[in-house]
């Protein structure tokens, strides 16, 4: 990106912000605080019914992720650790009954509360969201230690690793993949936002992709929350580089539009080959944002956090979007970025407005294929719920070649296009 992150010309902005907004310097948590827990509730610990000492087969009593609470025995094998962090550990395993690979996310459970991630995942059902197949509780090594285990779809790759692969090869990810991945991300956001859920941690690492089919599934709802107007939320949420400016300003009454900002950052990163707003602190990130968008107006500041409207910022002009990106970047991609990365949260495109954007028109052409020659993943299998979100967009969202399939299948709640 044209060395715009390397110059020191805006050091005064950083010094000014630090002096006026010292609380911003600490806004870089990497995990969700415990506002992700609610309501005291008892629940049964699922005893492990049998464990092969060699680790070959484990059988537990688990509850299906969707539907009635009817616990059943589930056996799995080939267990190996594939990830860990402050949240817990993620294992890969293979179900004995179906031979399908699954991911098992194991997190320490606070006995006093329900787990918000579990509550949210149990009500989500969408092709671009990782599915909760089962859940069960297990005891830990310490006395009274209990773990929640979420058995999820296993998807082998992430957008982060795919992008890193192309970066290491000193090449840019093909634009068709950018379109396919981002379109599916916006579909997933449209769905969860329609359910009142804000993800609060959109980043390339949380976008799972199948490298063969290009299917994308949004994962990790450990920071997600059902946002209720009038109820305050923590502002120290979302991973660095992808934090909306209202979060950096300390807003607690934000909306699901913080996810849209994060998605815009992901899109920009795929186009640039590097994060658009890097920084190790809220100050660093705000400086980078101002260097691109310019100094926010008083009205924009009010929309982000009314408490800061009386402060005067050094006046920095916006950097032209065409100069932010490389010369061969498609104009439609730049235009979409500019509509996502807006200071005013309500001015950002909605997820379905993003799906309907001209940047994705190629996906609506009947003969578009992946670079491998494979057909595109299912992009137009909208449910009646999805099509009721912004029905005025449906004529754009459903391309002509897909419409003939809608009438016969609408009765089942799915429009299999």
Automatic annotation (TrEMBL):
Residues 76-360 form the Protein kinase domain. It comes from the Eukaryota. Keywords: ATP-binding, Kinase, Nucleotide-binding, Serine/threonine-protein kinase, Transferase. GO terms for cellular component: axon; cytosol; nucleus. GO terms for molecular function: ATP binding; tau-protein kinase activity. GO terms for biological process: cell differentiation; insulin receptor signaling pathway; negative regulation of canonical Wnt signaling pathway; negative regulation of TOR signaling; positive regulation of proteasomal ubiquitin-dependent protein catabolic process; regulation of microtubule cytoskeleton organization; regulation of neuron projection development. The keyword Lipid metabolism does not apply. ATP binds at residue 106. It is an enzyme of class 2 (transferase). PROSITE patterns: PROTEIN_KINASE_ATP, PROTEIN_KINASE_DOM, PROTEIN_KINASE_ST. Its EC number is 2.7.11.26. Transmembrane segments: none annotated. The keyword Membrane does not apply. It catalyses: L-seryl-[tau protein] + ATP = O-phospho-L-seryl-[tau protein] + ADP + H(+); L-threonyl-[tau protein] + ATP = O-phospho-L-threonyl-[tau protein] + ADP + H(+). Belongs to the protein kinase superfamily. CMGC Ser/Thr protein kinase family. GSK-3 subfamily. This is [tau protein] kinase. It comes from Astatotilapia calliptera (Eastern happy). The lineage of its organism: Eukaryota, Metazoa, Chordata, Craniata, Vertebrata.
């Amino acid at each position: 990106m044209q060395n715009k992150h390397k110059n020191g010309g805006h050091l005064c902005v950083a010094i000014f912000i630090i002096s006026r907004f010292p609380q911003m310097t600490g806004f870089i948590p990497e995990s969700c605080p415990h506002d992700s827990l609610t309501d005291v509730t008892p629940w049964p610990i699922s005893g492990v019914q049998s464990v092969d000492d060699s680790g070959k087969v484990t059988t537990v009593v688990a509850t299906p992720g969707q539907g009635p609470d009817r616990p059943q025995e589930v056996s799995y094998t080939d267990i190996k650790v594939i990830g860990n962090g402050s949240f817990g550990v993620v294992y890969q395993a293979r179900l004995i009954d179906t031979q399908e690979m699954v991911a098992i996310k194991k997190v320490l459970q606070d006995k006093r509360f329900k787990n918000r991630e579990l509550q949210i995942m149990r009500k989500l059902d969408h092709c671009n969201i990782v599915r909760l197949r089962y859940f069960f509780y297990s005891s830990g090594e310490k006395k009274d230690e209990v773990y929640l285990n979420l058995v999820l779809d296993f998807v082998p790759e992430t957008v982060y690793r795919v992008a890193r692969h192309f970066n290491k090869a000193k090449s840019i990810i093909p634009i068709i993949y950018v379109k396919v991945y981002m379109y599916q991300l916006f579909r997933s956001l449209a769905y969860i936002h329609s359910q009142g859920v804000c993800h609060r941690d959109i980043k390339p690492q949380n976008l799972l992709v199948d490298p063969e089919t290009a299917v994308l599934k949004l994962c990790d709802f450990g920071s997600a929350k059902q946002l209720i107007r009038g109820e305050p939320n923590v502002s120290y949420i979302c991973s660095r580089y992808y934090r909306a400016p209202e979060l950096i300003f300390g807003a607690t009454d934000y909306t699901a539009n913080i996810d849209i900002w994060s998605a815009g950052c992901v899109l920009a990163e795929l186009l640039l080959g590097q994060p658009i707003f890097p920084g190790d602190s809220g100050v660093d990130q705000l400086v980078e944002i101002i260097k691109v968008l310019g100094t926010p107006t008083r009205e924009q500041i009010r929309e982000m956090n009314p408490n800061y409207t009386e402060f005067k910022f050094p006046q920095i002009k916006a950097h032209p979007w065409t100069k932010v990106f490389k010369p061969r970047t498609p104009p439609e991609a730049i235009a979409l970025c500019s509509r996502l990365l807006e200071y005013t949260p309500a001015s950002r495109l909605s997820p379905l407005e993003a799906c309907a954007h001209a940047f994705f028109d190629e996906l609506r052409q009947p003969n578009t294929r992946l670079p491998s020659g494979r057909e595109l993943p299912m992009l137009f299998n909208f449910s009646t719920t999805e099509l009721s979100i912004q029905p005025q967009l449906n004529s754009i969202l459903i391309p002509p070649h897909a419409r003939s399939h809608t009438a016969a299948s609408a009765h089942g709640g799915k429009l299999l296009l």
